Amino acid sequence: MRRVIGIDIHRTFGEVVIWDGGILRHAGRVDMTRTALEGFGKGLRSTDEVVIEATGNCMAV
To answer: What are phi and psi of 14, to 5 degrees?
Structure first.
């Protein structure tokens, strides 16, 4: 089943939610640093869909 990752991007962190198998869960925060985002990305599956809000801060992500 498809898994969708949503990230609400703020200036210094992103709030992450995961919709998996029809269940939505809060997955915490990720820092908006290169190191933290790379670490977060390494935990994603090749079939994951990632959705981010369209604000100015999302361009860097």
So the answer is: -125, 135
Q: Which of 3, 1, 2, 57 is nearest to 30 (CA)?
A: 57
Helical H runs in 1-61? 34-42
Please give the chain's pLDDT, 61 residues, in tens.
789 999 998 888 999 999 999 999 999 999 999 999 999 999 999 999 999 886 766 666 6
Other CB atoms within a 10 A radius of the CB of residue 33 amount to: 11
Cα gap 5→15, rounded to integer Å? 10
List phi, psi (to 5°) of 56: -60, -40
The whole model's pTM is what? Answer: 0.82
